[in-house]
Specification:
The protein is α+β, with helices and mostly antiparallel strands and 401 residues long. A hairpin with a 2-residue loop joins strand 2 and strand 3. The model has no long low-confidence stretch (mean pLDDT 79). The protein folds into two domains: 184 residues, no CATH class; 177 residues, no CATH class. It has 13 helices and ten strands.
Length: 401
């Protein structure tokens, strides 16, 4: 019985192929939009998580100043080398403590120049970042203590200044400072914030302070906790120590920030997940529009086929059979639209993630939900026209012109 009803539904759909195509177009667009948006959003979230994980989930950053709407208008007090030493000796569970100063300079080598970021660091920086060298060597303790003019290049800087040539032992100009290239960092690519991590030059902190920064202050303290150590506890201990050293009275807000990478990762992935959900919800609205389109066309179909319905009822067809016929037509249309929308949505998402350089992460759950939702749309919006057809009076239907 059901197979016969399905056959009649398919014949009615194929009889008006163009109208059927236009009817399901809303469902196709809605399902494709939902699938594409959610898949792209999942890929973006996965990429952000992967980028942030490269920095390590056990990382913490201390920076002077306040952020947000309550940010102070006065220049924040910078950290000192004594602050760094206090953290290194008084805070337990830390694998590395790396003071950092940064500035933007123009690097010149031969006839090439490139605007980049230069960072004054200590050897703990590479340990905290788990950043290895592709070639060359790290700074020697004597180079760090004496503030010698040595530098390590990121891959982007090396490529811009030297192309395919080797950079080790070459002399480059960093701002007004001439320094010798002693190594090249392994390529890391973009960070979770979208910046190029390889577009950097590293030099000993004392060299930076004397020759570029002109001050012994420290702008950022990077800390790496040992495996198994709670970063939340380390963060609390560092905040308490810095409050004591900066003589911040009880009840007053900090004039610095200590950020945990775990919190940053959770915040960013939470934001991308929320945006994905919002985009998916907006796209799902078109599914409702498609459902209204199905109801409208099915009402037209009932009106056009009134005499056919009357004939079927007159020769003994039950109301339930007529109801089922039109309901199956509506559900079949929406299922066809759902299947086509899933295929188109996955195809669009695959192309989009290629342009965005994020992983292709389809969600089987969303695909299943979109398919079931499209079938439900057909059933819900097809019920009223089907019920109207089933309740036609056979005599009045046969008289219909």
């Amino acid at each position: 019985m059901f197979l016969e009803t399905l056959r009649l539904a398919l014949r009615a759909i194929s009889r008006n192929a163009l109208r059927s195509f236009l009817t399901v177009l809303g469902i196709v667009i809605g399902v494709a939009a939902v699938i594409a948006m959610v898949t792209i959003g999942n890929g973006t979230t996965a990429q952000v998580t992967a980028d942030l994980s490269r920095l390590g989930t056990n990382m913490l950053f201390a920076r002077p100043g306040q952020f947000g709407p309550r940010r102070s208008a006065t220049e924040p007090k910078r950290f000192t080398e004594r602050d760094v030493e206090a953290i290194r000796t008084q805070i337990g569970g830390l694998r590395a403590v790396a003071p950092i100063n940064q500035s933007t300079v123009v690097a010149i080598a031969g006839g090439q120049n490139h605007s980049t970021s230069v960072a004054g660091i200590t050897s703990d920086y590479l340990v905290a970042q788990s950043w290895d060298l592709a070639s060359g060597r790290a700074f020697l303790p004597s180079e760090e203590r004496g503030g010698q003019s040595a530098c390590i290049l990121g891959e982007t800087v090396r490529s811009e200044l030297f192309g395919a040539a080797a950079a080790e032992n070459q002399i480059i100009r960093v701002g007004k400072l001439s320094c010798t290239v002693i190594g090249v960092l392994e390529k890391k690519g973009q960070s979770g914030m979208g910046s190029d991590q390889d577009d950097t030059i590293l030099m000993p902190l004392k060299t930076f302070q004397r020759r570029i920064g002109g001050t012994t202050d420290i702008s950022t303290i990077m800390m790496s906790a040992r495996d198994g150590v709670s970063t939340a506890k380390v963060q609390s201990d560092v905040e308490r120590l810095l409050r004591e050293r900066r003589k911040i009275a009880e009840g007053r807000e900090n004039d610095f920030n200590v950020n945990d990478m775990t919190q940053i990762t959770q915040a960013m992935t939470g934001t991308t997940t929320l945006l994905t959900g919002l985009l998916g919800a907006v796209a799902a609205v078109s599914l409702l529009v498609g459902g209204i389109g199905i109801m409208n066309i099915m009402l037209v179909s009932v009106t056009e086929r009134t005499r056919e319905i009357g004939t079927r009822l007159a020769i003994g067809a039950l109301e339930g059979q007529v109801l089922m016929q039109f309901l199956v037509e509506a559900v079949t249309l929406s299922i066809f639209g759902g299947i086509a929308g899933i295929a188109i949505g996955l195809g669009l998402a695959y192309v989009a993630v290629g342009f965005l350089h994020v992983p292709f992460v389809p969600s089987p759950t969303i695909v299943a939900v979109a398919f079931l939702f499209s079938a439900a749309i057909g059933m819900i919006f097809g019920y009223f026209p089907a019920r109207r057809a089933a309740h036609l009076n056979p005599i009045d239907a046969l008289r219909h012109e």
